[in-house]
């Protein structure tokens, strides 16, 4: 009996020891995984490219809609924002503050924006919010992303943005000339089963294009297109706007180095013209002297 107790006790101790070893290994593995995740996040080196006081003005707001439905209105059901976009004259984004919202990691900074929308009837609407350039949290999503991202980088490092990657970096022309921009698009299709209280059977295809200035991470151009197929009818709508002015960029004026060149060119032409006239007059005078020599 004592022998059995000793064997049982020894077995329990061995079992407990094995369980402890496994627990330690699990904790160690979990720690390594967490460290790897944290390292990957930090390694992306998310940077805020704007400062408090920076502002960006947008214009060229365009809203377009077409449909083969004879009863279609300017803005299809559920897309009343088209009318609002079409009535927008300009939009001003102002950076109110840049601060860390997720300490103790200073690279996880958020940009606080104030957006003023000015309409054609003279009215204005003001909205405020923030966006974390790291995780993508906040209501100002896609307005600002991290500066200096490259093709293949996620727009934000949050888990919901794992498939939202920069497609390519290309040069596009804006107020200060050609700038490097990070481009991304999104294409998706959703089923439309109910809209405005009515049962429908159709689909909606959406294509969105974003262009961000690579140096600052600020959105400089946006466009979207929505194609809805409801029954036998197809409706297409699109919106777009782009940056027209900023305190960071100035509209290019005529280069001043052209002025002295133009002046020198004009002076040279005047000099050549005068020299030719003097030369012609001199030779004409000599020719006339030969034809009509002076009598003495």
Structure explained in plain terms:
The termini are far apart. A nine-stranded antiparallel β-sheet has the order 4-3-2-1-9-8-7-6-5. The protein contains three helices and nine strands. The protein has two domains: about 55-245, no CATH class; about 255-295. A hairpin with an 8-residue loop joins β2 and β3. The chain has helices at about 1-45, 80-85, 260-290; strands spanning about 55-65, 90-100, 110-120, 125-130, 170-175, 175-195, 200-215, 220-230, 235-245. It is of the alpha+beta class and about 300 residues long.
Number of domains: 2
How many helices?
3
* Low-confidence regions: 22-43, 251-263, 284-296
Query: CA-to-CA gap between the ends?
Result: 165 Å
Order of helices and strands: HEHEEEEEEEEH
Sketch the major β-sheet: 9 strands, antiparallel
User: Approximately what portion of the residues adopt beta-strand conformation?
Assistant: 35-45%
Strand order of the largest sheet: 4-3-2-1-9-8-7-6-5
Instruction: Tell me the Rg in angstroms.
Output: 35 Å
Which percent range fits the helix content?
25-40%
Structural class: alpha+beta
Which outline best applies? globular
Oligomerization state: single chain
In total, how many beta strands?
9
Mean pLDDT: 76
């Amino acid at each position: 009996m004592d022998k059995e107790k000793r064997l049982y006790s020894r077995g329990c101790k061995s079992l407990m020891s094995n369980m402890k070893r496994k627990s330690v290994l699990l904790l160690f593995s979990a720690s390594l995984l967490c460290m790897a995740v944290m390292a990957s996040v930090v390694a992306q080196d998310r940077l805020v490219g704007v400062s408090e006081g920076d502002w960006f003005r947008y214009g060229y707001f365009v809203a377009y809609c077409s449909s083969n439905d004879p009863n279609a209105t300017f803005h299809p059901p559920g897309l009343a924002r088209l009318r609002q976009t079409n009535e927008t004259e300009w939009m001003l984004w102002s950076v109110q503050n840049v601060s860390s919202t997720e300490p103790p990691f200073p690279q996880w900074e958020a940009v606080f924006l104030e957006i003023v929308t000015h309409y054609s009837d003279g009215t204005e609407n003001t909205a405020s919010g923030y966006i974390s350039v790291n995780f993508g949290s906040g209501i100002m999503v896609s307005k600002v992303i991290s500066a200096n991202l490259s093709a293949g980088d996620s727009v934000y490092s949050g888990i919901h943005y794992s498939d939202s990657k920069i497609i390519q970096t290309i040069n596009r022309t804006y107020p200060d000339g050609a700038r490097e921009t990070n481009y991304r698009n999104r294409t998706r299709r959703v089923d439309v089963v109910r809209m405005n209280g009515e049962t429908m059977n159709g689909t909606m295809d959406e294509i969105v294009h974003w262009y961000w200035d690579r140096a600052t991470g600020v959105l400089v151009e946006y466009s979207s297109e929505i194609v809805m197929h409801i029954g036998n009818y197809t409706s297409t709508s699109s919106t777009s706007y782009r940056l027209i002015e900023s305190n960071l960029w100035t509209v290019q004026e005529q280069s001043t180095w052209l002025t002295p060149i133009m002046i020198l060119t004009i002076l040279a032409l005047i000099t050549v013209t005068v020299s030719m006239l003097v030369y012609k007059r001199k030779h004409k005078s000599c020719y006339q002297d030969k034809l009509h020599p002076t009598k003495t």
